[in-house]
Design a protein that fits this description.
It is a single chain. This protein has about 425 residues and is of the alpha+beta class. The chain folds into two domains: about 200 residues, Ribosomal Protein S5, domain 2 (2-Layer Sandwich), CATH 3.30.230; about 170 residues, Alpha-Beta Plaits, CATH 3.30.70.890. The protein is built from ten helices and 15 strands. Helix 7 runs antiparallel to helix 8. It is globular. Bound molecules: adenosine-5'-diphosphate and magnesium ion (MG). The site of magnesium ion (MG) has 4 residues, from helix 3.
């Protein structure tokens, strides 16, 4: 997997630094405005293929507020779209051929030749989408395209650059061929993107990332119910309460953890089987005593308590008690760290430092073993908390993290410019 970063990073201004952090600056990964992203994608398109695309489409990356490692247990998650998005400039062709260009390279080939593991690497996420949309009848067998990519979503940071890429192309193809893009249409597109990622890119993904990329609404989180596949917007306006979410991309070195995901999933499925329920969504805390093996019990306890935590956060959001969400985020982190054991020193450092600096709550977000953490902070404290997280990482001998600010929800995938 290619984890090279092609994100635009602004170095500075220098945020407040902790003692001993001389020379280390806080790096803010800024969201690129759609118009600039569209211009970059169009420029890449002209450079790669000549001429103009039919249009440019975008889809957002995401962070998950709460509801981690519960999708394969039929659970609930509450992701939020980033204003960091990926754009694809696309021109349709009718010969079933694809020509692709991204910051990671160029690829071309026939949709007919796409299959599990072919192509491999980044082109799989794009070719896989056309392959899956064709299989489900969302586009014709002759659909082909020139595609150029520009992105402001950090790659491999647990912020779902893969789904942003897939979903930008899926909505583009749907628009070009006239497939429905209403809620039901978007759900079908999300399923095609999941198929692309699972079956062609051969990466496990539960569907939350695609659901938020396609169903995001500004000023809202999205409640994703992996039990019945439904999604529902949930008003989420931190700014009104003087709060912000600070995203900390730990930039932890990639670890060999592939087997770990499969193991966690197996434990969760074993626990459900032992309890005689279809998924742990149907289990309660008291059921956990019936699990014989302490390790399985801890894994299951994370899932069951995490689903409860999502419900708790929903209640706080509906009663307007946003600050109270913080403590629930911190409990989620402790559960992921101690019961599910998917944290790592970089994530723990980010969470510890954010809490010590006065965050209302903080947790790792995403699959774990690296990636990103989030902290709920007062708007006025964002820079200070980021500075403390940075200097703590330095003190602990860890790589310097990068930071993103969330201004609640970006828009869902949509066409940004009719290019003329
Ligand atoms: P995440 O989705 O958390 O960023 P993944 O490992 O799921 O991490 O997906 C990252 C992969 O998606 C990259 O290695 C690359 O293959 C592909 N990808 C994502 N964004 C882009 C992009 N802008 N250009 C090319 N490939 C991309
Ligand atoms: Mg991904």
């Amino acid at each position: 997997m290619d984890l090279r970063r092609r994100t635009r990073v602004d170095r500075g201004p220098v945020a407040r630094r902790g003692a001993g952090a001389v020379g280390v600056v806080t790096e803010w990964v800024r969201a690129t405005p759609d118009a600039d992203l569209a211009a970059s994608a169009t420029a890449a398109f002209r450079d790669a293929f000549g001429g103009l695309p039919d249009g440019v489409w975008v889809a957002p990356g995401r962070v998950n507020l709460i509801g981690e490692h519960v999708d394969y247990a039929g659970g609930l998650s509450l992701p939020i779209a980033l204003s960091h998005r990926t754009a694809v400039a696309v021109r349709e062709r009718r010969d079933g051929h694809l020509r692709l260009r991204s910051g990671l390279g160029s690829w071309e080939g026939a949709v007919d030749a796409v299959g599990p593991g072919a192509p491999s690497g980044w082109p799989a996420y794009l070719a896989g989408v056309v392959w899956a949309m064709r299989r489900s009848g969302l586009c014709g067998t002759d659909f082909g395209a020139h595609v150029a990519v520009a992105s402001a979503v950090p790659i491999g940071a647990g912020l779902s650059s893969s789904a942003a890429l897939e979903c930008a192309l899926a909505i583009a193809v749907a628009d070009l061929v006239g497939a429905p893009t209403d809620d039901a249409g978007r759900t079908a597109l999300a399923a095609a993107c999941v198929a692309a990622e699972n079956e062609i890119a051969l990466a496990p993904t539960g569907g939350m990332d695609q659901a938020i990329a396609l169903h995001a609404r500004a000023g809202h989180a999205v409640l994703v119910d992996s039990g019945d596949g439904t999604v529902a917007p949930v008003p989420f306006d931190l700014g009104a309460d003087g709060l912000a979410l600070l995203v900390i991309d730990t930039r932890a070195p990639h670890r060999l953890v592939d087997g770990q995901y499969a193991q966690r999933r197996r434990s969760v499925e074993d626990a459900a089987a032992q309890l005689g329920v279809p998924t742990l969504r149907h289990a309660t805390r008291t059921d956990l005593d019936r699990l014989g093996d302490p390790l399985t019990e801890r894994r299951a306890r994370h899932v069951v308590t995490e689903i409860d935590r999502v419900r708790e956060v929903l209640q706080f959001l509906s009663s307007g008690s946003l600050r109270e969400v913080g403590a629930v985020l911190t409990s989620s982190h402790i559960s992921l760290r101690d019961d599910f054991e998917v944290s790592c020193p970089e994530l723990d450092s980010a969470v510890d430092a954010a809490l010590a600096a006065g965050a209302h709550g903080a947790r790792m977000t995403g699959g774990g073993f690296g990636g990103s953490a989030i902290a709920l902070v007062d708007v006025a404290d964002v820079d200070r908390v980021a500075g403390e997280v940075l200097s703590t990482a330095e003190t602990r001998g860890l790589v310097a993290p990068a930071f993103l600010r969330i201004d609640t929800g970006g828009a869902a995938a949509r066409r940004v410019t009719p290019v003329s």
